[in-house]
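Milestone 3.1: sequence recovery, worked example.
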């Protein structure tokens, strides 16, 4: 006996249901389909066309079965979606960058070719993004299927504080103070010195003995041109901070100027690090030139210093453009209001 379309539809619906639920769903579907077909036939529609129309209206049998079994047909539903999305964005903003920096430092310490280091960094970034996205999604998919309670509840206490646009008086004062300290340290290091050096190396004491000298950390040969250029860059940064305060927020023009300034500073500092001209040779000899300190330590410290320079410049650039976006958003909100 050939099965009808209705029989095939009911069989397709109940095949994925728990055994204890199959008989109940079969009886209910048989009755509802028969009633719907009979109603259409009573209105003059052919039986075959009525059956096909009723089954078409019921839709995919797997979707219907999921409704009977109370089984979700989404990977991550609204209960966990925002939590998943916020955590994923946070992890993707931190983990790949940390992994890339770690691989780059390891490659430079191992003295690998630049091309090899770049290739390894690209591979680890892609691999880290894939793993972070996959395993984070798996965890929340399991939570979705098991209905586990994460214990996290929204409350008014979780409302974020308004993000600063860098235009407040406190931002201006803070920026100028930090820049002033940086300039003072440069000048103090050049004309007085920052480190006390004794017979056994760096002297952390406060007294100056007969065998103690005060050395500059930076190479004295950087004066006047390199140190002067650094002071000019500090002045430009101070002018940017004042302009941000006067204009009540960051603008694309100020962000571009800040980006160029950061790139120039990072490029000059990296050149000095690579050329071995940044640190005072007397300071290096007194601290890293001793017999008990391996030569490799100096190279590792130079690599770490270069990474810090690039990291600081990159963050300064990203932060300025983020504040441009926030300032534009605040301006749009005021106009809409």
């Amino acid at each position: 006996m050939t099965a009808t379309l209705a029989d095939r539809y009911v069989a397709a619906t109940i095949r994925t249901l728990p055994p204890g639920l199959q008989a109940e769903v079969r009886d209910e579907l048989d009755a509802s389909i028969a009633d719907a077909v009979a109603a259409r036939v009573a209105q003059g529609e052919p039986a075959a066309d009525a059956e096909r129309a009723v089954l078409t209206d019921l839709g995919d049998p797997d979707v219907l079965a999921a409704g009977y079994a109370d089984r979700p047909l989404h990977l991550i539903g609204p209960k966990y979606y925002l939590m998943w999305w916020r955590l994923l964005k946070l992890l993707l903003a931190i983990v790949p960058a940390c992994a890339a920096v770690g691989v780059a430092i390891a490659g430079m310490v191992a003295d690998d070719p630049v091309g090899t280091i770049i290739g390894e960094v690209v591979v680890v970034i892609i691999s880290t993004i894939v793993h972070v996205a996959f395993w984070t999604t798996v965890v929340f998919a399991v939570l979705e299927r098991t209905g586990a309670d994460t214990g996290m509840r929204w409350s008014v206490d979780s409302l974020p504080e308004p993000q600063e646009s860098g235009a407040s008086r406190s931002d201006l004062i803070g920026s100028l103070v930090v820049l002033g300290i940086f300039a003072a340290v440069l000048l103090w290091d050049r004309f007085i010195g920052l480190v006390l050096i004794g017979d056994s190396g760096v002297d952390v004491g406060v007294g100056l003995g007969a065998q103690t000298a005060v050395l500059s950390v930076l190479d004295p040969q950087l004066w006047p041109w390199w140190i002067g250029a650094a002071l000019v860059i500090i002045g430009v940064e101070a002018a940017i901070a004042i302009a941000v305060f006067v204009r009540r927020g960051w603008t694309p023009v100020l962000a571009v100027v800040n980006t160029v300034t950061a790139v120039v500073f990072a490029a000059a500092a990296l050149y000095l690090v690579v050329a071995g001209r940044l640190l005072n040779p007397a300071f290096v000899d007194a601290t890293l030139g001793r017999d008990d300190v391996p030569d490799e330590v100096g190279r590792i410290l130079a690599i770490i210093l270069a990474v810090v320079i690039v990291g600081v410049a990159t963050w300064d650039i990203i932060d300025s453009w983020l504040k441009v976006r926030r300032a534009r958003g605040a301006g749009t909100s005021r106009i809409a209001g």
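The radius of gyration is 34 Å. The beta strands are 195-198, 201-202, 213-215.
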